[in-house]
UniProtKB/TrEMBL annotation:
It comes from the Eukaryota. NCBIfam families: hisT_truA. Belongs to the tRNA pseudouridine synthase TruA family. Pfam families: PseudoU_synth_1. Transmembrane segments: none annotated. Keywords: Isomerase, Signal, tRNA processing. CDD domains: PseudoU_synth_ScPus3 (cd02569). Residues 1-18 form the signal peptide. This is tRNA pseudouridine(38/39) synthase isoform X1. GO terms for biological process: mRNA pseudouridine synthesis; tRNA pseudouridine synthesis. Gene3D superfamilies: Pseudouridine synthase I, catalytic domain, C-terminal subdomain (3.30.70.660), Pseudouridine synthase I, catalytic domain, N-terminal subdomain (3.30.70.580).
Amino acid sequence: MFYFLAFLFFSLNGKYICLVLVQKVGHGAATKSRLSAQITCAATHVYLASTIMAKVLRKCAKTGKSTREQLEMLDKSELIDKILQLEARNEQLRLLITKGTDVESRKEGTPGKVRKSFDFSRYHKRHILLKFYYLGWDYHGFAVQEDTNETIEHHLFAALSKSCCIESRESANYHRCGRTDKGVSSFSQVISLDVRSRLEPENQGNLSDELPYCKILNRLLPMNIRCIAWCPVSSNFSARFDCKYRRYRYFFPRGNLDIVAMDKAVKYAIGDHDFRNICKMDVANGVVNFKRTVIDAQVTLVNDQNVEKSTGYDMCELEITSQAFLWHQIRCLMGILLLIGRRKEEPEIILRLLDIETCPQKPQYNMAHQIPLNLWYCDYENVKWFIDENELLNTIKILQQDWAINIIKSTMIKNMLMELENLVNCVNIDFQSDCLLLGVQSKIYQPLMKREMCESLENKIKHYEKKRKFEVTHSEVT
């Protein structure tokens, strides 16, 4: 009797591992043919074991967390492979989450109860505008997304479908006025769509006899999404394309900011300008024209307070009006205004960024926080909103309750701050607005024009043209 030994060497995360496999042979009748068969069998077992262990170790190496040093040792192709593996894994997780959400949604229904299909053919339709507000702090933006249900549109269409106001989104002739991002709120978002009507076409002028759309939807929507009013419009009216202008407000505490300098700076943005340096360029989706017209812009203290008598706890707002805005245009603008308010930059830096001849590339800087931003108003011609006063009173009551809880928290925190501030002798303790500029703040400030520049618009266009993601005509390049 003797033992068949095999030594297997593996490399795992930069470390070498030796695996010893032992197989006993020669037991039983020691005939030559039997011994040969046992050796062959042992070799086969060793081969199979080594193959299995190699797969296990490779899997461990792939699923293990990589260190920075390990990633730096990989070449470009290996890094690409790793990115593709991570993207594939993310897609698997997204599908699992979606599947789990669908299962939970099905569980919410009453067991054994089959909902009777609604016969839309028995009803007429009408095209309307719906105005509503939402507090977007806990949502992932307005537009519906594949990987989450926590969007305004998801809840809105869930309510519209459940109430049988619409048959489907695809058949609803739907448009939205604005598409707010994650965390952004709106006081006056407007959508247009075809909805079910209980009136004959010739009697649809009697709005008080129509379905109470706001009341119906508010019974199904989350408390922080409320329908305020509705208005009948022609079938070709679009909440998006027929909007005359959109107005945003960005609320912030004064802190130690120079409000006068910020107001002076934002005035430079009024008029027709190329805002490629004051937005996030979305070239991947074919956006190559960054010219926009700002109708009005101002930075003021809320409630017309006196600037000289104000404190760091007094609230201010940026109000800006335009027919259309670019992606993150307001948050990028506010990020620069905060630097001006801190006296890190002069107000004229806005002029330099808008001059694409002398500044064709955007300097790297951080955007402002998303929470203070609100799509405040959307304007339309010849639109008279119909308001159900009783329903509006319910909405006011709900919003007052939100205000009460939040002002109680705010007052409690402020009184705690007052007590603590009395214990220090420091002259400047106005840090209230410091949290609004995202990213890590360097101890030594580097002026915007001396920072590293982002890739130019022309280079970005060439990059995506090479990938054949889209084609751009020369007339579109600005």
